[in-house]
Model the fold of this input.
Amino acid sequence: MAFESLSEKLSQAFKKLRSKGKLGEQDIKEAMREVKLALLEADVNYKVVKDFVKTVSERAVGQEVLESLTPAQQVIKIVNEELTALMGGENARLEFPSKPPCIVLMCGLQGSGKTTHAAKLAKYFKTNSGCRPLLIACDVYRPAAIEQLKIVGEKAGARVFEMGQGNPVEIAKEGLKFAKDHGHDLVIVDTAGRLHIDEQLMDELKRIEAEVHPNEILLVVDAMTGQDAVTVASTFNEALPVTGVILTKLDSDTRGGAAISVRQVTGKPIKFSGIGEKLDDLEPFHPGRMASRILGMGDMLTLIEKAQTAVDEQKAEELARKMQQNSFDMNDLLDQMQQIKKMGSLKQILGMLPGVGKKLEEVDVDDRQLVRIEAMITSMTPAEREKPSIINPSRKRRIAAGSGTKVEDVNRLLKQFDQMKQMMKQLGGFGKKGRRKMRFPMMPM
Done:
């Protein structure tokens, strides 16, 4: 999970502060030493750490903290604010011109995930902004790069323009002309990466940039490479007018050094983060929300946005009606589970709840449990799904055999379903009086 080790170490440092009623300068000095070590171990740039600790320390020894009734909370609040500022302060959006198309040039080293994230970006803006994206295949050197872009482009619902193994500058030029002729309002140019930075790559990128005049130049960086990611970002930024960064594999980076350092070192904002392998696993980078996650405060805003994207409004209304009438059945449970799966893994979802992230460190959250429940429900007949009370021992054995589970698993599901119905009945009572409305998918118990 992202920032796992950093969150744990910061949590330990703040735990010592919370155990003290009043704080002296020495207490804050010791806490800041632990914060400094935690950030360095997380592979955050040394100069960034030094400046960060100095700023926090200066604020923390002020009157507002030392004379506060809850000094530890005040220190955490300052760390949260400074972490947010360090990562950019506000969410940096893609700049769309007044006259389309918006042209995005993707660049980065080979293996950083450029091609996949070009498709992720296309899908994100198609889904959330109604754009008509076009992907231009300018990586003519890597074997099967064009074919890969076609595959991910098709999955993202984006058209791909390619001219085979030709001149990348000419391909970019013709692709842009095609986009304008066919009404594409978002153009994403996938360029070639290299195993290391070289003059030939940079010259080619400069020629493409001069030809298409992109509105955005997004550098794709692998968060797992830590300080190397920051070095790569700095080098590309010196050669090209980079406008933003996409950090990939952030879900696997337990340290988080790149996310914290890259903005401060390059001066360029992180605009998106890749948080998984699926095409939906792309999030706008919100510094404040990320700081909250690092400090174990959760990220309810991102969780709500995920829910709003995943939940079908009409189905939510139908569920609310069924709750009021107490007619919730196994079909509804199956539908709710499928909507939850769209939001990401269970551990990812639960980790966004305030105070839950740290408790998940020792817990094995098994997403296969959802698959098993889904298998049991789909092994039921339509009549059994609508009225689970008719499921007798022989039916249970058939359902277990059909879903590859045990009879005990079926019994557990039916018991949990009954408990859920009782809870639904109580919630339904609120709905009748107009005081509460169901807008969020129910989690399976």
